[in-house]
Amino acid sequence: MNREIKFRYWNEYNKEMDYTEMFRKPWQKGLEDFFEYIGDTPLNKIMQYTGEIDKNGKEIYEGDIISGLNGFGNTDKTNIEFHDGGFWPLCADEFEWDDIEVIGNIYENPELLKEEK
Question: What is the CATH number of the domain that holds 77?
Fold first, then answer.
């Protein structure tokens, strides 16, 4: 499986996500220059593109919050993390991948993951 290697980063100081072309194609400057420029510090959180898109054609990145049907036929939401050698929904039952929709991300919309009462 081939996928585009793209990154975005959350700038905690400015409270904004950066998708500029430089960060989407870091190999143009070289990965070392990219990571040195951004710096994985508490203020800058780097997230990688998973190679997947949601049902609306939106790219899915690490840290995105998704909503969709779980393995029990119920609508569920969770975030995407890298573990076990791949990008997976965290703390969720199996998702119907054709039904997934990106509804936010863990930095701009953390309230989306709070338990509903």
Answer: 2.30.30.290
